[in-house]
Amino acid sequence: xxxxxxxxRGADRRKPGAADxxxxxxxxxxxxxxxxxxxxxxxxxxxxxxxxxxxLRAGAEAAGRxxxxxxxxxxxxxxxxxxxxxSQFDMVTPENEMKWDTVEPNNGQFNFGPGDAIVNFATSxxxxxxxxxxxxxxxxPGWVSSLSGSQVKSAMEAHITGEVSHYKGKIxxxxxxxxxxxxDGSFRQDVFYNAFGGGAQYIGDAIRTAHAADPDxxxxxxxxxxxxxxxxxxxxxxxxxxxxxxxxxxxxxxFESHFIVGQIPxxxxxxxxxxxxxxxxVAITELDDRMPTPASSSNLQQQATDDANVVKACLAIARxxxxxxWNISDADSWVPGTFPGQGAATMFDTNYQPKxxxxxxxxxxxxxxxxxxxxxxxSQGANTVTVxxxxxxxxxxxxAIAGVQVLASDSASGQTLTYSASGxxxxxxxxxxxxxxxxxxxTAGTFPVTVTVTDTTGxxxxxxxxxxxxxxxxxxxxxxxxxxxxxxxxxxTANVTVTNTGTNAITGWTTGFTFPGDQKITNAWNATTTxxxxxxxxxxxxxxxxxxxxxxxxxxxxxxxxxxxxNPTAFTLNGTxxx
Length: 579
Ligand code: G3I
What we know:
Blueprint: H1 18-26, H2 32-40, H3 56-62, E1 66-71, H4 79-88, E2 91-94, H5 100-103, H6 113-124, E3 128-135, H7 142-145, H8 149-166, E4 173-178, H9 191-196, H10 199-213, E5 218-223, H11 231-245, E6 252-255, E7 258-260, H12 268-276, E8 281-292, H13 297-315, E9 322-325, H14 335-338, E10 342-343, H15 356-367, E11 375-378, E12 385-388, E13 393-396, E14 404-405, E15 408-410, E16 418-422, E17 428-430, E18 436-439, E19 445-454, E20 460-470, E21 478-488, E22 491-500, E23 506-507, E24 510-514, E25 520-525, E26 527-532, E27 535-540, E28 546-547, E29 552-560, E30 571-573, E31 576-577
Parallel strand pairs: 1-2, 1-9, 2-3, 3-4, 4-5, 5-6, 6-8, 7-8, 8-9, 13-20
Antiparallel strand pairs: 8-10, 11-12, 12-15, 14-18, 16-19, 17-18, 19-20, 21-22, 22-29, 23-28, 24-27, 24-30, 25-29, 26-27, 30-31
Helix pairs in contact: 3-15, 8-10, 13-15
The structure holds ligand G3I.
Ligand G3I binds at residues 7, 10-11, 14-15, 95-96, 138-139, 256, 286, 334.
């Protein structure tokens, strides 16, 4: 069921009372972080394993995700707000400061001050930035709409190039195109649509332009009311398929998630997963969950359930990198200004204190790393170390695992536990201090894993389980052709063509090979390469993840060498040797 958030309508409304709210919160005491820690609590298993994270960012990071927040320039002058934003989150989206009307109010005249201030805040708190947004019908200065069609095209490309270049290397992901659809799934016929003669045309052009300016940034289309299945979400799905088939470097879809309490679509996870299955990242980009104000305690409890369910859906999807809450607290939220009588939509109240939703979300994040399981223990000294067996695990070559937390406890107090593992699938490793296993599998197969946990006296316990890594859809039948396309003293370029010689489509691939010489890849195209010593893993880009039976795809790279750039001769695809 679709939820009418009215988020798009917000574009046309003003925020009455916003100044009042900002004034109110500026007077609040700066004592929130300690309160949050207490409210969230911490659990310690057997007294010795690491305490559960007490902040959203730590919980998210332990689960291999980020937890983001929208921050506006007005928030930066409020110490209480920045305390929460700086301690609870590890990703920041500028609420308005990177939108067209702020960044390029007049043709060719760029104003990066407000956006830079948000980036500086994020950087100084060790937080990354989601850029929001480059092309949107709203918050668009009037001069764009008065241009002719061909002028709109060049203005759009110049705007994207100017803004993305300015922030090159500082932005994790861009919402390149924002809210392109009407509720019935038809394209919004805005100035960009009209100038290019179609939705896929301007969107493809915008994404390619952004990619040219910062090839490392992830590039998203972002919209609301696409969280559950329905005509708008189906339209986004077909657009994604069209763009990927055209080779447009689309990386992900942003699901804004402006919800109404008790109305989270039941199809949320399955819907996001179908986009992920196209090889796209899927992020919750603007989470809030509004209710009539003043809030009733039953609605606050329902909000806790809602928000935790949204976070659990993200955690269940390997390609969901994180969740962003829209605004820091109920004092900053856009909701009351757009929906009078509604609010209380975030996890922090108007005094920046954590609400039930905060605790529920933190528990959901922490629960992600605590799978239900049996335990095993053994004793080699006076102490007994008990290791919680995480149970059988699975993964796919080339797809990062969300993170598996092995927990342990000790019969004695005051012991420091050290974790080690044998038999882990290639590409995964365990943190000796925390027992968190993370990484990206590079080889398919079934791996018997033993985790050993040792305390300060030498007493230890173990847990043994099996980790099955599948080959990312490869039938195992493949051919790889490596061609050096140019060579000069100390440098070379190469092209690699991967052919699916099997009968099943390959969805998501990683090509592995070992350089015989001392080559080092310096930059690659149409694949993401990771080099460890002489060993290289090249993973598909989102737009070339699928190789149909009999079809091929190519990627290339440039590299340096000192003495030897002999071509590699043996290749694998998703861990299986190719001819
Ligand atoms: O900057 C002017 C100020 O000069 C003027 O005095 C004041 C008068 O009301 O308005 C100020 O601009 C406001 C702007 O926020 C900056 O505060 C606009 O009126 C107001 O409409 C605008 O609202 C923003 C809204 O996007 C616009 O569509 C909200 O803060 C922002 O939270 C909201 O964010 C959007 C996402 O970008 C896209 N998805 C939906 C989401 C919620 O609507």
